[in-house]
From TrEMBL:
It comes from Williamsia serinedens. Coiled coil: none annotated. Pfam families: BPD_transp_1. This is Sulfonate transport system permease protein. Belongs to the binding-protein-dependent transport system permease family.
Amino acid sequence: MVTSIAPAHTPLPVADTGPEPPRAVRRRTDGWRRQRWTVVRALSPVALLVLWQLGSALRLIPERILPAPSLILDAGVDLARSGELTDALVVSGTRVAEGLVLGGVVGVVLGSLVGLSRLAEATVDPPLQMMRALPHLGLIPLFILWFGIGETPKILLVALGVAFPLYLNTFSAIRQIDRRHLETAQVLGFSWRQRFSRVILPSIAPQLLVGLRQSLAIAWLSLIVAEQINADAGLGFIINQARDFLRVDTIIFGLVVYALLGIVTDGIVRVLERRALRYRAERA
């Protein structure tokens, strides 16, 4: 009797994918991708300006409604040469800085207090939520009656807009801290100052920086409105004068400067965010 032996199954060869690329290669690849998208982000506004200029040159866009970018740039150059732009930037920047510091301190302190104390949450948070529901720009008439038409209502309006994003983000970040970290710090004998600097602050930093970016955007928005209150200096004063003389190019240039200031300050916070949170990228 002949016994047939079936041939043994030969496993298919597995393609050798090679070792995982080292971390340095991955970082270079990620860096190239980030640079590519940065270039795309930079070119999109340039393309918009080219189309705008072309439409103005072909008389498709009326000059009395929307002047060409070249005319707006000429208006800005005239303001820079006369020194008016520099003086206005100093005045407006000072107002935003003072309002940001005042509102930021109030927002972070109240957010920390409410986040760390159930009693404060029950007593302080409800009135703050009621105030947050009010449109802060709608308080301008009251601010004028209470504080006049000087610098105080302008700074307070900016501070009021800044305070609530930082308050909410601080409160939310503190409540999301892993309680085991706080308990470990207490077992190790950390003082309150050590717990705040080594546990609480690093834990809330990401969300706190997000709140700062939101606050900066609201700060510049509030300043645009605040500087319409009988301003005698600043970017709002330049825009008001241009409105009286029907200088649409100067008005648009002032608005562009507001937008650029918002972008620059947001970029500064993003750089600080990357530096403060670089440990996350190193662990990724």
